[in-house]
């Protein structure tokens, strides 16, 4: 095989699950980067030319923690439009599409900066939930950055609380959230040690709470504290399950708690993976937190 033929073979596209990926000596190869925001981890595929359209089964294989690379989701980065530098296409670990992710936006922002796909530290990311301006700053450890994200206006729904069952309300963040505070579905939520918000209780409650929402919903089980101006929460994400952090969920929890008069305009939300800062003092909510680079990976799609 001549050099020219080898190059042509490597550059040939093939159809894979309704889309295209690179073919490398007969095997489809993708270069992915892995990032996490407080343990909420994503595979990032920078695809500004729209060459690598992955179907649900390919996403499930890649996100599988035992049989694939492993992640809570996969982000395909596309060319931006209408003033946005880039666009987010977000896939949950089960292969379904999602509208947006606060942690995913921070990871995407770091990824495109490191890939040289954007210029400067301040730019706009287009999402199905709307444009999301971001600002990227230095982190406190190697491979880490701190990203400030304008999350838009939280759509706080009416109070659905019932006597003796704790507080409940929905919040729209471009994606749907159900925020619960107190004794909603069992004594483990009523004034419990924050460490009790995960594990078996969350795994049992999450699917049961989602059952009333045919299109799925993200669930935040919240306690107030441990310090003034703080919340602590466990998370059950649609299409994923229990996660270590949720950016949109942190904003949803803060907005709901503020509507109940439990916190002020600036809230520290303690996720299982660490704290996120939420600022509700302006016309839109602002989320600030870290993104950490993990690895760059060349994956063969067999």
List the helices and strands and how they pair.
Layout: H1 3-10, E1 13-16, E2 19-24, E3 27-37, E4 40-46, H2 56-63, E5 73-79, E6 86-92, E7 97-98, H3 102-114, E8 122-127, E9 130-138, E10 144-152, E11 155-156, E12 167-172, E13 176-181, H4 199-210, E14 218-224, E15 230-237, E16 241-242, H5 247-259, E17 266-271, E18 274-279, E19 285-301
Parallel strand pairs: 4-5, 6-8, 13-14, 15-17
Antiparallel strand pairs: 1-2, 2-3, 3-4, 3-19, 5-6, 6-7, 8-9, 9-10, 10-19, 11-12, 12-13, 14-15, 15-16, 17-18, 18-19
Describe this structure in words.
This protein is 18% helix and 42% strand. By secondary structure, it is α+β, with helices and mostly antiparallel strands. It folds into 2 domains: 3-150 and 291-301, Diaminopimelate Epimerase, Chain A, domain 1; 155-282, Diaminopimelate Epimerase, Chain A, domain 1 (Roll). The chain has an 8-stranded mixed β-barrel. Helix 2 links the parallel strand 4 and strand 5 (73-79). It is globular and about 55 Å long. 43% of the residues are buried.
């Amino acid at each position: 095989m001549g050099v020219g033929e080898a190059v042509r073979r490597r550059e040939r596209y093939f159809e894979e699950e309704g889309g295209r990926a690179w073919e490398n000596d007969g095997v489809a190869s993708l270069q992915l980067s892995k990032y996490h925001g407080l343990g909420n981890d994503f595979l990032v595929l920078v695809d500004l030319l729209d060459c690598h359209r992955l179907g649900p089964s390919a996403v499930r294989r890649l996100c599988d923690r035992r049989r694939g690379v492993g992640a809570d989701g996969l982000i395909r980065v596309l060319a931006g439009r209408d003033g946005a530098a880039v666009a987010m296409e977000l896939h949950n670990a089960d292969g379904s599409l999602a509208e947006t992710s606060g942690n995913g936006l921070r990871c995407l922002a770091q990824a495109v900066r490191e890939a040289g796909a954007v210029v400067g530290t301040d730019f706009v990311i287009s999402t199905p939930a709307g444009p999301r301006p971001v600002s990227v700053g230095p982190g406190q450890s190697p491979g880490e950055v701190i990203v400030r994200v304008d999350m838009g206006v939280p759509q706080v729904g009416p109070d659905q609380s019932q006597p003796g069952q704790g507080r409940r309300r929905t919040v729209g963040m471009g994606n749907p959230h159900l925020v619960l505070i107190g004794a909603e579905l069992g004594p483990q939520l009523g004034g419990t040690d924050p460490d009790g918000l995960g594990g078996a209780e969350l795994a049992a409650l999450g699917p049961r709470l989602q059952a009333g929402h045919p299109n799925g919903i993200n669930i935040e089980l919240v306690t107030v504290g441990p310090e003034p101006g703080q919340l602590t929460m466990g998370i059950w994400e649609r299409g994923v399950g229990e996660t270590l952090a949720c950016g949109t969920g942190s904003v949803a929890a803060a907005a709901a708690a503020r509507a109940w008069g439990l916190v002020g305009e600036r809230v520290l939300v303690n996720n299982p993976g660490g704290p996120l800062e939420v600022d509700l003092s302006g016309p839109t909510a602002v989320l600030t937190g870290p993104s950490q680079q993990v690895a760059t990976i060349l994956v063969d799609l067999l």
